């Protein structure tokens, strides 16, 4: 059964990668602008003063516009740094440049904080391959965010960012998968795990 779940997860990842790779420049810009608007709306609606987010790599939904807005507004932002043990440290960026991190993933210059630091933010914004309507989040297979979310004593609201086609009715899941509070796409915000907030 576990093998079947893993195979189905990989099939979905391959499908999403192919779909994102096929996006044209104009479509990417429109998606980035939509995501920026939705994330700004989410942060303002929740009156968040501190957030964790991510720097987009490859074809991940582009948060660069939102991060520029957050920097200009003086929000306290934490960005992830992958560790060898599979957890995430967090960086409070100085906004003064980038360095190469684990797996060749760019990381910002700034102050390093422990894996527990993210428990203090008002809102977590995480990448995803896909999300379903029950809050199941499918990542890319390394498990960094699942381990981090699963190890937290206090978990802020968690919103996964995906393109429209990656928000689906159902996804395969394992026991270690931690449901997200909501999903953000270029055109909407939907609460999935916290009906009182709708």
TrEMBL record:
Signal peptide stretch: none
EC number: 6.3.3.2
Molecular function (Gene Ontology), one example: 5-formyltetrahydrofolate cyclo-ligase activity
Coiled coil: none
Binding site for ATP: 9-13
SUPFAM superfamilies: NagB/RpiA/CoA transferase-like (SSF100950)
Originating species: Leucobacter chromiisoli
Binding residue positions for substrate: 55, 60
InterPro entries for this protein: FTHF_cligase, FTHF_cligase-like_sf, NagB/RpiA_transferase-like
Cofactor requirement: Mg(2+)
Metal-binding among keywords: yes
Enzyme class label: ligase
UniProt keywords, alphabetically: ATP-binding, Ligase, Magnesium, Metal-binding, Nucleotide-binding
Entries under Pfam families matching the protein: 5-FTHF_cyc-lig
Annotated protein name in UniProt: 5-formyltetrahydrofolate cyclo-ligase
Family: Belongs to the 5-formyltetrahydrofolate cyclo-ligase family.
Keyword Kinase: no
GO biological process assignments: folic acid-containing compound biosynthetic process; tetrahydrofolate interconversion
Catalytic activity of the protein: (6S)-5-formyl-5,6,7,8-tetrahydrofolate + ATP = (6R)-5,10-methenyltetrahydrofolate + ADP + phosphate
């Amino acid at each position: 059964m576990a093998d079947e779940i893993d195979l189905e997860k990989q099939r979905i990842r391959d499908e999403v990668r192919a779909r994102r790779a096929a996006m044209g420049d104009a479509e990417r810009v429109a998606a980035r602008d939509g995501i920026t608007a939705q994330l700004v709306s989410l942060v303002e609606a929740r009156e968040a003063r501190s957030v964790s987010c991510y720097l987009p790599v490859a074809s991940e939904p582009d948060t660069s516009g939102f991060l520029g807005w957050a920097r200009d507004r003086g929000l306290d932002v934490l960005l992830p740094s992958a560790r060898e043990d599979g957890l995430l440290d967090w960086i409070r960026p100085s906004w003064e440049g980038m360095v190469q991190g684990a797996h060749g993933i760019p990381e910002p210059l700034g102050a390093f904080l422990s894996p527990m630091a993210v428990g203090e933010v008002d809102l977590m914004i995480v990448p995803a391959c896909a999300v379903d309507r029950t809050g199941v989040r499918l990542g890319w297979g390394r498990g960094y965010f699942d381990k981090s979310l699963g190890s937290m004593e206090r978990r802020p609201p968690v919103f996964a960012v995906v393109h429209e086609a990656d928000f689906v009715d159902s996804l395969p899941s394992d026991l270690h998968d931690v449901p997200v509070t909501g999903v953000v796409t270029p055109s909407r915000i939907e609460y999935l795990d916290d009906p009182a907030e709708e």
